[in-house]
Amino acid sequence: MLRPLACLLLAALCGLPAHAAPSLKIGLNYPRTGNYKDEGLELRRGALLAVADINRSGGVLGQPLELLSANTASRAEQARDNVDRLVAQGARMVFGGATSEEAIAAGQRARELGLLYFATLSYANDVTGLNGHRYLFRESNSAWMSARVLGEYLSWHMPRRHYYYISIDDAWGRSMEDALRRATGSTDRARHGHSNLPSGLVRHEQYRQALEKAAASKADVLVLVLLGDNLQRSMRMLHNMQLHKQVQVIVPNLTKSVVQQAGPVVMEGVIGTLAWTWDLPRQDNNPIGQDFVERYIAEYQEYPGSTTASAYAIVRQWADAVQRSRSRSLNSEQLIGALEDHSYSLLKDEQQWRAFDHQNVQSIYAVRVRSRAEVMRDPYKQDYFEVIHRMAGEQAAPSLDDWQQERGDNLTLQ
Protein backbone atom coordinates (compact mmCIF):
# COMPACT_ATOMS: atom_id res chain seq x y z
CA MET A 1 0.00 0.00 0.00
CA LEU A 2 1.29 3.45 -0.92
CA ARG A 3 1.92 5.85 1.94
CA PRO A 4 0.04 9.21 1.96
CA LEU A 5 2.91 11.36 0.66
CA ALA A 6 3.67 8.89 -2.14
CA CYS A 7 0.00 8.96 -3.09
CA LEU A 8 0.05 12.76 -3.22
CA LEU A 9 3.07 12.79 -5.49
CA LEU A 10 1.60 10.10 -7.76
CA ALA A 11 -1.72 11.89 -7.95
CA ALA A 12 0.00 15.13 -8.85
CA LEU A 13 1.92 13.45 -11.65
CA CYS A 14 -1.04 11.44 -12.94
CA GLY A 15 -3.21 14.53 -13.01
CA LEU A 16 -0.93 16.26 -15.51
CA PRO A 17 -1.98 16.32 -19.15
CA ALA A 18 0.11 14.57 -21.79
CA HIS A 19 1.63 17.89 -22.87
CA ALA A 20 2.53 18.88 -19.31
CA ALA A 21 5.17 21.55 -18.83
CA PRO A 22 8.65 20.34 -17.91
CA SER A 23 9.41 20.30 -14.22
CA LEU A 24 11.29 23.00 -12.34
CA LYS A 25 14.13 21.40 -10.41
CA ILE A 26 15.59 22.37 -7.05
CA GLY A 27 18.54 20.69 -5.35
CA LEU A 28 18.81 19.38 -1.78
CA ASN A 29 22.43 19.19 -0.60
CA TYR A 30 22.19 16.98 2.49
CA PRO A 31 24.05 14.37 4.56
CA ARG A 32 22.63 10.96 3.70
CA THR A 33 25.59 9.35 5.48
CA GLY A 34 28.06 10.44 8.13
CA ASN A 35 27.83 12.23 11.47
CA TYR A 36 24.58 14.08 10.67
CA LYS A 37 22.69 11.46 8.64
CA ASP A 38 19.67 11.51 10.98
CA GLU A 39 19.29 15.27 10.49
CA GLY A 40 19.73 14.70 6.77
CA LEU A 41 16.75 12.34 6.72
CA GLU A 42 14.62 15.01 8.38
CA LEU A 43 15.72 17.59 5.80
CA ARG A 44 14.69 15.31 2.94
CA ARG A 45 11.31 14.55 4.47
CA GLY A 46 10.53 18.24 4.93
CA ALA A 47 11.57 19.05 1.37
CA LEU A 48 9.45 16.25 -0.11
CA LEU A 49 6.39 17.39 1.81
CA ALA A 50 6.84 20.97 0.56
CA VAL A 51 7.23 19.79 -3.05
CA ALA A 52 4.04 17.71 -2.74
CA ASP A 53 2.11 20.68 -1.31
CA ILE A 54 3.33 23.05 -4.03
CA ASN A 55 2.51 20.62 -6.83
CA ARG A 56 -0.94 19.97 -5.36
CA SER A 57 -1.53 23.73 -5.69
CA GLY A 58 -0.43 23.93 -9.32
CA GLY A 59 3.36 24.00 -9.09
CA VAL A 60 5.55 27.06 -9.67
CA LEU A 61 4.77 29.28 -12.67
CA GLY A 62 2.50 26.49 -13.89
CA GLN A 63 5.29 23.90 -13.79
CA PRO A 64 5.57 20.97 -11.39
CA LEU A 65 8.42 21.14 -8.90
CA GLU A 66 10.96 18.30 -8.79
CA LEU A 67 13.41 17.61 -5.97
CA LEU A 68 16.95 16.55 -6.83
CA SER A 69 19.32 15.51 -4.05
CA ALA A 70 23.00 14.83 -3.44
CA ASN A 71 24.83 13.39 -0.42
CA THR A 72 27.33 15.71 1.26
CA ALA A 73 28.42 13.12 3.89
CA SER A 74 28.82 16.29 6.03
CA ARG A 75 31.97 17.29 4.11
CA ALA A 76 32.40 20.85 2.89
CA GLU A 77 34.29 19.92 -0.28
CA GLN A 78 31.59 17.40 -1.20
CA ALA A 79 28.87 19.98 -0.56
CA ARG A 80 30.66 22.40 -2.89
CA ASP A 81 31.09 19.78 -5.64
CA ASN A 82 27.44 18.78 -5.30
CA VAL A 83 26.34 22.27 -6.32
CA ASP A 84 27.94 21.71 -9.73
CA ARG A 85 26.29 18.28 -10.03
CA LEU A 86 22.87 19.60 -9.10
CA VAL A 87 23.16 22.56 -11.47
CA ALA A 88 24.25 20.21 -14.27
CA GLN A 89 21.00 18.29 -13.66
CA GLY A 90 18.99 21.51 -13.97
CA ALA A 91 18.57 22.73 -10.39
CA ARG A 92 17.46 26.39 -10.21
CA MET A 93 18.09 26.71 -6.46
CA VAL A 94 20.10 24.67 -3.95
CA PHE A 95 19.58 24.35 -0.19
CA GLY A 96 20.53 22.21 2.77
CA GLY A 97 23.64 21.20 4.68
CA ALA A 98 24.16 20.12 8.28
CA THR A 99 27.34 22.04 9.10
CA SER A 100 28.39 25.64 8.70
CA GLU A 101 31.40 24.62 6.63
CA GLU A 102 29.03 22.97 4.14
CA ALA A 103 26.88 26.09 3.92
CA ILE A 104 29.86 28.41 3.44
CA ALA A 105 31.54 26.24 0.78
CA ALA A 106 28.36 25.37 -1.13
CA GLY A 107 27.01 28.90 -0.83
CA GLN A 108 30.19 30.35 -2.30
CA ARG A 109 30.04 27.97 -5.26
CA ALA A 110 26.38 28.82 -5.82
CA ARG A 111 27.34 32.50 -5.85
CA GLU A 112 29.96 31.85 -8.53
CA LEU A 113 27.23 30.20 -10.62
CA GLY A 114 24.70 32.99 -9.97
CA LEU A 115 22.43 30.69 -7.98
CA LEU A 116 20.67 31.16 -4.64
CA TYR A 117 21.69 28.91 -1.74
CA PHE A 118 19.59 28.48 1.42
CA ALA A 119 21.44 27.17 4.48
CA THR A 120 19.89 24.79 6.99
CA LEU A 121 21.41 23.53 10.28
CA SER A 122 24.26 26.01 9.85
CA TYR A 123 24.54 27.90 13.11
CA ALA A 124 27.99 29.56 12.95
CA ASN A 125 27.81 33.34 13.00
CA ASP A 126 30.20 33.37 10.02
CA VAL A 127 27.52 31.99 7.66
CA THR A 128 25.60 35.27 7.47
CA GLY A 129 28.36 37.30 9.14
CA LEU A 130 31.94 37.30 7.92
CA ASN A 131 31.22 34.90 5.04
CA GLY A 132 27.77 36.20 4.14
CA HIS A 133 26.99 37.31 0.56
CA ARG A 134 24.00 38.28 -1.56
CA TYR A 135 23.31 34.78 -2.89
CA LEU A 136 23.22 33.10 0.53
CA PHE A 137 20.18 33.05 2.83
CA ARG A 138 20.03 31.25 6.18
CA GLU A 139 16.74 29.92 7.53
CA SER A 140 18.20 28.47 10.75
CA ASN A 141 19.17 30.72 13.64
CA SER A 142 22.75 31.79 14.33
CA ALA A 143 24.93 30.94 17.33
CA TRP A 144 24.42 34.51 18.50
CA MET A 145 20.63 33.99 18.60
CA SER A 146 20.86 30.72 20.55
CA ALA A 147 23.30 32.29 23.00
CA ARG A 148 21.03 35.29 23.59
CA VAL A 149 17.98 33.26 24.62
CA LEU A 150 20.05 30.78 26.67
CA GLY A 151 22.06 33.54 28.32
CA GLU A 152 18.93 35.38 29.43
CA TYR A 153 17.31 32.22 30.80
CA LEU A 154 20.45 31.05 32.63
CA SER A 155 21.19 34.49 34.11
CA TRP A 156 17.67 34.61 35.54
CA HIS A 157 17.39 31.02 36.80
CA MET A 158 20.98 29.81 37.32
CA PRO A 159 23.12 32.88 38.12
CA ARG A 160 26.79 32.85 39.13
CA ARG A 161 27.46 29.27 38.04
CA HIS A 162 30.76 27.56 37.19
CA TYR A 163 30.84 26.49 33.51
CA TYR A 164 32.84 23.93 31.54
CA TYR A 165 32.71 23.77 27.72
CA ILE A 166 33.30 20.79 25.44
CA SER A 167 33.23 22.06 21.85
CA ILE A 168 33.77 20.72 18.38
CA ASP A 169 36.67 22.54 16.74
CA ASP A 170 34.89 23.99 13.71
CA ALA A 171 33.30 27.31 12.72
CA TRP A 172 30.06 26.65 14.59
CA GLY A 173 31.76 25.21 17.67
CA ARG A 174 34.07 28.20 18.05
CA SER A 175 31.40 30.84 17.44
CA MET A 176 28.82 29.09 19.65
CA GLU A 177 31.21 28.76 22.59
CA ASP A 178 32.35 32.36 22.23
CA ALA A 179 28.78 33.71 21.99
CA LEU A 180 27.55 31.69 24.98
CA ARG A 181 30.53 32.65 27.12
CA ARG A 182 29.74 36.30 26.50
CA ALA A 183 26.02 35.81 27.10
CA THR A 184 26.56 33.99 30.41
CA GLY A 185 29.53 35.97 31.74
CA SER A 186 31.79 32.91 31.59
CA THR A 187 34.56 34.45 29.46
CA ASP A 188 37.25 33.80 32.10
CA ARG A 189 38.76 30.62 30.68
CA ALA A 190 40.89 30.05 33.77
CA ARG A 191 37.73 29.61 35.84
CA HIS A 192 35.37 28.32 33.15
CA GLY A 193 37.46 25.67 31.41
CA HIS A 194 37.10 23.93 28.07
CA SER A 195 38.10 20.95 25.95
CA ASN A 196 38.12 20.90 22.16
CA LEU A 197 37.22 17.85 20.09
CA PRO A 198 38.50 17.53 16.51
CA SER A 199 36.12 18.32 13.67
CA GLY A 200 36.80 14.97 11.99
CA LEU A 201 36.56 11.50 13.51
CA VAL A 202 36.40 11.66 17.32
CA ARG A 203 37.76 8.62 19.16
CA HIS A 204 36.19 7.07 22.25
CA GLU A 205 39.12 8.07 24.48
CA GLN A 206 38.84 11.70 23.33
CA TYR A 207 35.23 11.88 24.53
CA ARG A 208 36.22 10.27 27.82
CA GLN A 209 39.21 12.55 28.43
CA ALA A 210 37.08 15.65 27.83
CA LEU A 211 34.34 14.43 30.17
CA GLU A 212 36.84 13.46 32.87
CA LYS A 213 38.31 16.97 32.73
CA ALA A 214 34.81 18.41 33.05
CA ALA A 215 34.14 16.23 36.11
CA ALA A 216 37.46 17.22 37.70
CA SER A 217 36.69 20.93 37.18
CA LYS A 218 33.78 20.76 39.67
CA ALA A 219 31.66 22.80 37.26
CA ASP A 220 27.94 23.30 37.88
CA VAL A 221 27.09 23.65 34.19
CA LEU A 222 28.49 21.50 31.37
CA VAL A 223 28.02 22.94 27.88
CA LEU A 224 28.29 20.45 25.01
CA VAL A 225 28.77 22.39 21.79
CA LEU A 226 28.26 19.25 19.72
CA LEU A 227 25.77 17.94 17.16
CA GLY A 228 24.77 14.66 15.53
CA ASP A 229 26.61 11.45 16.39
CA ASN A 230 29.19 13.39 18.41
CA LEU A 231 26.49 14.63 20.74
CA GLN A 232 24.75 11.25 20.99
CA ARG A 233 27.98 9.43 21.91
CA SER A 234 29.15 12.01 24.42
CA MET A 235 25.73 12.08 26.10
CA ARG A 236 25.66 8.29 26.46
CA MET A 237 29.14 8.32 27.95
CA LEU A 238 28.27 11.22 30.25
CA HIS A 239 25.22 9.29 31.47
CA ASN A 240 27.23 6.11 32.07
CA MET A 241 29.72 8.14 34.11
CA GLN A 242 26.81 9.52 36.19
CA LEU A 243 28.06 13.01 35.39
CA HIS A 244 24.51 14.20 34.68
CA LYS A 245 23.85 13.98 38.44
CA GLN A 246 26.59 16.54 39.12
CA VAL A 247 25.97 19.16 36.42
CA GLN A 248 23.26 20.86 34.42
CA VAL A 249 23.92 19.86 30.81
CA ILE A 250 23.45 22.54 28.15
CA VAL A 251 23.27 21.63 24.46
CA PRO A 252 22.96 24.96 22.62
CA ASN A 253 21.31 23.53 19.47
CA LEU A 254 19.00 20.58 20.07
CA THR A 255 17.25 18.51 17.41
CA LYS A 256 14.52 15.92 17.64
CA SER A 257 16.69 13.30 15.96
CA VAL A 258 19.42 13.58 18.62
CA VAL A 259 16.96 12.98 21.47
CA GLN A 260 15.31 10.20 19.48
CA GLN A 261 18.59 8.39 18.84
CA ALA A 262 20.22 8.94 22.25
CA GLY A 263 16.97 8.28 24.10
CA PRO A 264 14.98 10.37 26.60
CA VAL A 265 16.63 8.64 29.58
CA VAL A 266 20.05 9.88 28.47
CA MET A 267 18.79 13.32 27.40
CA GLU A 268 16.39 13.99 30.29
CA GLY A 269 16.73 17.49 31.74
CA VAL A 270 19.11 18.79 29.06
CA ILE A 271 18.55 22.47 28.25
CA GLY A 272 19.05 23.91 24.76
CA THR A 273 17.39 25.92 22.02
CA LEU A 274 15.08 25.28 19.09
CA ALA A 275 13.51 27.51 16.48
CA TRP A 276 10.37 25.33 16.23
CA THR A 277 8.61 22.42 17.88
CA TRP A 278 5.72 20.34 16.59
CA ASP A 279 3.28 21.73 19.21
CA LEU A 280 3.87 25.43 18.48
CA PRO A 281 1.22 25.66 15.70
CA ARG A 282 -1.45 24.37 18.10
CA GLN A 283 -0.34 26.75 20.84
CA ASP A 284 -0.33 29.69 18.41
CA ASN A 285 -3.56 28.62 16.67
CA ASN A 286 -1.73 28.46 13.34
CA PRO A 287 -3.86 26.41 10.86
CA ILE A 288 -1.09 26.10 8.23
CA GLY A 289 1.34 24.80 10.84
CA GLN A 290 -1.25 22.44 12.30
CA ASP A 291 -2.01 21.00 8.88
CA PHE A 292 1.72 20.48 8.26
CA VAL A 293 2.06 18.58 11.55
CA GLU A 294 -1.00 16.43 10.91
CA ARG A 295 0.10 15.44 7.40
CA TYR A 296 3.60 14.63 8.60
CA ILE A 297 2.18 12.41 11.35
CA ALA A 298 -0.07 10.67 8.84
CA GLU A 299 2.92 9.95 6.60
CA TYR A 300 5.55 8.92 9.16
CA GLN A 301 3.63 8.14 12.38
CA GLU A 302 5.85 10.54 14.33
CA TYR A 303 6.19 14.25 15.01
CA PRO A 304 8.13 16.54 12.68
CA GLY A 305 11.20 18.26 14.12
CA SER A 306 12.65 21.71 13.62
CA THR A 307 15.00 20.35 10.93
CA THR A 308 12.04 19.11 8.89
CA ALA A 309 10.24 22.42 9.38
CA SER A 310 13.28 24.38 8.16
CA ALA A 311 13.54 22.44 4.89
CA TYR A 312 9.80 22.70 4.33
CA ALA A 313 9.79 26.46 4.91
CA ILE A 314 12.74 27.07 2.57
CA VAL A 315 11.09 25.31 -0.37
CA ARG A 316 7.80 27.10 0.24
CA GLN A 317 9.52 30.48 0.61
CA TRP A 318 11.57 30.07 -2.57
CA ALA A 319 8.44 29.12 -4.53
CA ASP A 320 6.59 32.08 -3.03
CA ALA A 321 9.43 34.45 -3.97
CA VAL A 322 9.29 33.25 -7.59
CA GLN A 323 5.56 34.02 -7.71
CA ARG A 324 6.07 37.43 -6.05
CA SER A 325 9.13 38.52 -8.04
CA ARG A 326 8.76 41.53 -10.31
CA SER A 327 8.51 39.53 -13.54
CA ARG A 328 7.52 36.19 -11.94
CA SER A 329 11.03 35.10 -12.78
CA LEU A 330 13.65 32.54 -11.73
CA ASN A 331 16.35 35.18 -12.09
CA SER A 332 18.44 35.25 -8.91
CA GLU A 333 18.64 39.05 -8.73
CA GLN A 334 14.87 39.38 -8.89
CA LEU A 335 14.44 36.66 -6.28
CA ILE A 336 16.87 38.42 -3.94
CA GLY A 337 14.74 41.55 -4.25
CA ALA A 338 11.58 39.55 -3.51
CA LEU A 339 13.12 37.95 -0.42
CA GLU A 340 14.94 40.87 1.21
CA ASP A 341 12.95 42.26 4.15
CA HIS A 342 10.02 40.01 3.26
CA SER A 343 7.95 39.07 6.31
CA TYR A 344 5.72 36.02 6.45
CA SER A 345 4.02 33.56 8.79
CA LEU A 346 4.03 29.92 7.77
CA LEU A 347 4.63 27.31 10.50
CA LYS A 348 5.03 29.75 13.41
CA ASP A 349 4.70 33.44 14.24
CA GLU A 350 6.11 36.14 11.96
CA GLN A 351 9.54 35.64 10.39
CA GLN A 352 11.58 37.93 8.15
CA TRP A 353 14.41 37.52 5.63
CA ARG A 354 16.50 40.46 6.80
CA ALA A 355 17.97 42.51 3.95
CA PHE A 356 21.34 43.55 5.34
CA ASP A 357 22.60 40.03 6.21
CA HIS A 358 20.01 37.58 4.76
CA GLN A 359 19.50 36.05 8.20
CA ASN A 360 16.02 34.71 8.90
CA VAL A 361 14.87 36.64 11.97
CA GLN A 362 12.44 34.58 14.04
CA SER A 363 11.48 33.72 17.60
CA ILE A 364 13.91 31.40 19.40
CA TYR A 365 12.97 29.08 22.25
CA ALA A 366 14.92 27.74 25.20
CA VAL A 367 13.70 24.20 25.87
CA ARG A 368 14.24 21.42 28.39
CA VAL A 369 14.06 17.73 27.49
CA ARG A 370 11.17 16.13 29.36
CA SER A 371 11.52 13.14 31.68
CA ARG A 372 11.11 9.67 30.24
CA ALA A 373 7.85 9.24 32.17
CA GLU A 374 6.40 12.36 30.52
CA VAL A 375 7.62 11.29 27.07
CA MET A 376 6.12 7.81 27.43
CA ARG A 377 2.69 9.25 28.21
CA ASP A 378 2.55 10.83 24.75
CA PRO A 379 0.80 8.76 22.00
CA TYR A 380 3.90 8.84 19.78
CA LYS A 381 6.39 8.92 22.68
CA GLN A 382 8.18 11.85 21.04
CA ASP A 383 6.92 14.93 22.87
CA TYR A 384 10.46 15.65 23.99
CA PHE A 385 10.64 19.40 24.56
CA GLU A 386 9.19 21.72 27.18
CA VAL A 387 9.48 25.39 26.20
CA ILE A 388 10.96 27.25 29.19
CA HIS A 389 11.79 30.64 27.65
CA ARG A 390 11.08 32.56 24.44
CA MET A 391 12.87 35.48 22.82
CA ALA A 392 11.63 37.50 19.84
CA GLY A 393 13.83 37.38 16.76
CA GLU A 394 14.51 41.11 16.77
CA GLN A 395 15.92 40.83 20.29
CA ALA A 396 17.92 37.67 19.62
CA ALA A 397 19.52 38.57 16.28
CA PRO A 398 22.63 40.76 16.06
CA SER A 399 22.02 44.40 15.19
CA LEU A 400 23.36 46.11 12.08
CA ASP A 401 26.16 47.61 14.19
CA ASP A 402 27.06 44.18 15.62
CA TRP A 403 27.06 42.69 12.13
CA GLN A 404 29.22 45.43 10.64
CA GLN A 405 31.70 45.08 13.50
CA GLU A 406 32.14 41.43 12.53
CA ARG A 407 32.42 42.24 8.81
CA GLY A 408 35.21 44.82 9.21
CA ASP A 409 35.62 46.88 6.03
CA ASN A 410 33.04 44.85 4.07
CA LEU A 411 29.93 46.63 5.36
CA THR A 412 27.39 45.38 2.79
CA LEU A 413 26.67 42.05 1.16
CA GLN A 414 28.44 41.60 -2.16
Automatic annotation (TrEMBL):
The yes or no answer to whether the keyword Metal-binding is present is no
What is the designated name of this protein?
Answer: Branched-chain amino acid ABC transporter substrate-binding protein
Q: Which keywords does this Swiss-Prot/TrEMBL entry list?
A: Signal
Organism lineage reads as:
Bacteria, Pseudomonadati, Pseudomonadota, Gammaproteobacteria, Pseudomonadales
Task: Write the signal peptide boundaries.
Answer: 1-20
Which part of the chain is the Leucine-binding protein domain?
A: 24-371
Annotated SUPFAM superfamilies:
Periplasmic binding protein-like I (SSF53822)
**Top-rank taxon, per record:** Bacteria
* Listed Pfam families: Peripla_BP_6
Q: Which residues cross the membrane?
A: none
Q: Which family does it belong to?
A: Belongs to the leucine-binding protein family.
